[in-house]
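re the bet — no i am not wrong, look at it urself. input seq straight from the record:
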Amino acid sequence: MIELQNIVQKGDILLVTKLDIIPRNAVKDIEIVKELFSRCIRVHVATNHTYQTFDR
């Protein structure tokens, strides 16, 4: 994840198939998503035929 955080840039959209794929615990999930939001990076989660967008 550290490498990914260094690659994504302001205005990018990070698409993941499961939110818990990024780290392995909910607290870390929230910390990472908040950090991405603070950098104006949107997070989209696609799971089992659904698509969720997480913006600030």
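see?? The radius of gyration is 11 Å. told u. also The beta strands are 13-16, 42-47, 50-54. so pay up
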